[in-house]
Amino acid sequence: MHQTFDAALEINLLHANQEGADHNRAHFDEWGITCLNVMSSPGAGKTALLERTLAALSDECKIAVIEGDMTTELDADRLRQYNVPVIAINTGRSCHLDSKMVAGGIHRFSHDYHPPEFDLVLVENVGNLVCPAEFEVGEHAKVALLSVTEGEDKPLKYPFMFQEADCLLITKMDLAPHLEVNINQIVENVRQMNAHVTIIPISAKTGEGLEDWFNWVRSTLKTQAEPQRLSAIV
Question: Which CATH number do you get for residue 145?
Answer without folding.
Answer: 3.40.50.300
